[in-house]
Write a structure and sequence with these properties.
single chain, about 600 residues, alpha/beta, Rossmann fold, GMP Synthetase, Chain A, domain 3, 7-stranded mixed β-sheet, 18 helices, Acetyl-CoA synthetase-like protein, CoA-ligase activity, AMP-binding_CS
């Protein structure tokens, strides 16, 4: 019998989840009005000091208000920048929210910045006040002095405030000295937005670069931040564990109310708090959902396993590189009981199917991928009721829509299952880049669509797949080859600990070259690698550019392979011409989370 063919479908896709976006300020979204009673359930908990360092939603709001009072006392005026350079700290969310309550713009710096990078960041943001941890203070202080920033506007920032034990660092005062009192905090009335321009004004700067050249500051407004958070919250709350829904009367609920306490959910906070996903998760999403979150200061795979077992973590968002380390060290991870971990989302870098299947075989409920950009927030994730089996990065979060276009013609929308350049549109997307009109014009296309810089496709069921970053694709004899695909194959070797692949010049064309980090106290030969690749990949995807064993694969703070560093190694290995990168480019593309 002849079956009629299925009609072709456009790749233009809208999320199957919907949610209203309240027009309010970010503090009003998280806490409601200043006098509204809030839960005393602990929602932010220090994984290293759970008995002494924790905050409930009520305590989180009070500390935020005390920050706002203190900033006003320091003379911070609307749209002044407040810069924080620190690693994970339990009080960071209150510093962020207090800055927004005071009308300022919160800017977050990476703790690993060197002097030159920190100086560029300070001269770029021109902060009214700087907060730095003890570890980052020496560099931040020297850079601030070079930028003529007064010492009296720099504060030591840490969690010693929670035990009232904060001490100065030389001439630099501890930040507890600038806070308002608890009485002042309880009386502080943080404003709501009063106009559309207020709603869409910049409240946050997240930085996509700054390690080379001038940093790009992603501007986020109340609307952007709320829409992105709600998109993620709506998706995950469709699972019964997240939404017991004891109040079936929709007339008695609102987007401002705290949801009921999910009775059996505990979240692990292992991401860097200055990372886009980490910041939204710890400052807004999970406190708003009234879910206990255990914040970690170390994110190596053994510390992650220990925290999962100790706190009986049920849900986690973990860097893909950490998940890969877990998968490559089954013997070590097997010493911990991970059966409590029902759901894991890998982010910040691509995750191989090998890692997913290995972790699920270890007893983790299901392992999946999420995908997003600093400029848009988290775009996709798994349907909680339909755990993915394929290599998809999931479906669009609520408030998001996407399309795939021909790489040579952005106005030509492709069909489902056709590979092309991915564009995203959402009210959660950035307003653009701080004082960088040229980059903003490259980022935001007609109709408000964001150029992601990622190449991929969407299937007929709305599942999205990422092939690779457009700028990282290797063009071999006219065919595009994904470094991520080759890396996933190489990681299957039991003694390969980490790997990075780039394109180099090969016979007037381009070919893949691998840099390989072996596991400690093991050896791997080049012949073994070539044999593995020959078994798993067609000829044009094999390592025609050669391979090299190195001590450590360079990665940034989010776990992404620093391919620019590998290209410098290739130039050292092969010479300026052969080692130079000959691949495609994607100017102005967004930065993957």
């Amino acid at each position: 019998m002849h079956l009629p063919s299925q009609p072709e479908r456009s790749s233009l896709t809208v999320s199957k989840w919907t949610t209203p976006i309240p027009r309010c300020s970010l503090p009003r979204f998280v806490f409601g009005s200043p006098r509204r009673p809030l839960s005393n359930r602990k929602v932010l908990i220090d994984a290293d000091h759970p008995d002494t360092h924790s905050l409930s939603l009520a305590e989180y709001r009070l500390l935020s208000c005390r920050v706002a009072v203190g900033l006003h006392r320091l003379g911070v005026t609307p749209k002044d920048r407040v810069l924080c350079v620190t690693s994970n700290a339990l009080c960071y969310p209150a510093l962020l929210m207090g800055t927004v309550m005071a009308g300022g713009i919160f800017a977050s710096g990476q703790p690993a910045l060197n002097h030159a990078e920190c100086y560029r960041l300070i001269t770029f943001t021109k902060p009214a006040v700087i907060f730095a941890s003890r570890a980052t203070l020496p560099i931040a202080l020297a850079a601030a002095r070079d930028a003529n920033h007064p010492d009296t506007r720099i504060f030591v920032f840490d969690d010693d405030l929670l035990t009232n034990s904060g001490l100065p660092e030389g001439p630099i005062a501890h930040w507890q000295t600038m806070l308002g009192s608890e009485w002042e905090g309880s009386r502080f009335w943080y404003p709501n937005i009063t106009s559309p321009s207020d709603y869409n004004s910049t409240i946050m700067l997240l930085f996509t670069s700054g390690t080379t050249g001038s940093p790009k500051g992603v501007e986020l407004s109340h609307r952007n931040y709320i829409a992105s958070a709600l998109g993620y919250m709506k998706r995950i709350s469709t699972h019964p564990a997240w939404d017991p829904n004891p109040n079936p009367n929709p007339k008695l609920s609102s987007s401002f109310s705290s949801p009921p306490n999910p009775p059996d959910v505990r979240v692990l906070g292992s991401l860097a708090i200055n990372h886009s996903v980490g910041q939204r998760s710890y400052c807004v999403i999970f406190p708003k959902m009234n879910v206990p979150l255990y914040l970690m200061r170390r994110n190596d795979y053994q510390s992650v396993c220990a925290a999962i077992e100790r706190f009986q973590i049920t849900d986690a968002i973990i860097r893909s590189s950490v998940l890969t380390s877990m998968a490559k060290n089954v013997g070590v991870c097997g010493r911990y009981d991970l059966s409590c971990l029902r759901r894991v989302e890998g982010c910040a870098a691509p995750m191989s199917q090998f890692t997913k299947l290995r972790l699920e075989a270890m007893g983790v409920g299901y392992v999946c991928r999420a995908w997003g950009l600093t400029e848009t927030g988290t775009i996709t994730g798994p349907d909680p009721l339909r755990p993915p089996k394929s290599e998809t990065v999931g479906q669009l979060n609520a408030t998001y829509e996407g399309k795939v276009t021909d790489s040579s013609d952005p106005f030509h929308i492709l069909k489902t299952n056709e590979v092309g350049e991915i564009w995203i549109r959402t009210p959660g997307s950035s307003r653009g880049y701080w004082y960088n009109e040229a980059a903003t014009e490259q980022l935001i296309g007609p109709g408000g669509w964001i150029c992601t810089g990622d190449v991929g496709y969407v299937d007929d069921e709305g599942n999205w797949y990422i092939v690779d970053r457009k700028k990282d694709l290797i063009k071999v004899n006219g065919s595009h080859v994904s470094p991520v695909e080759i890396e996933a194959v190489l990681l299957q070797h039991p003694n390969v600990c980490d790997v990075g692949v780039i394109g180099v010049a090969v016979n007037e064309d381009e070919g893949p070259r691998a840099y390989i980090q072996t596991s400690p106290k093991t050896t791997v030969t080049a012949a073994e690698i070539y044999e593995l690749v020959s078994e798993k990949l067609p000829p044009y995807k094999r390592l025609s550019g050669g391979l090299s064993f190195i001590e450590k694969i360079p990665r940034n703070a989010s776990g992404k392979v620093l391919r620019s560093d590998l290209r410098l190694l290739a130039i050292q290995d092969l010479g300026d011409y052969l080692g130079n990168y000959h691949g495609t480019t994607a100017d102005g593309a967004g930065v993957r989370l």
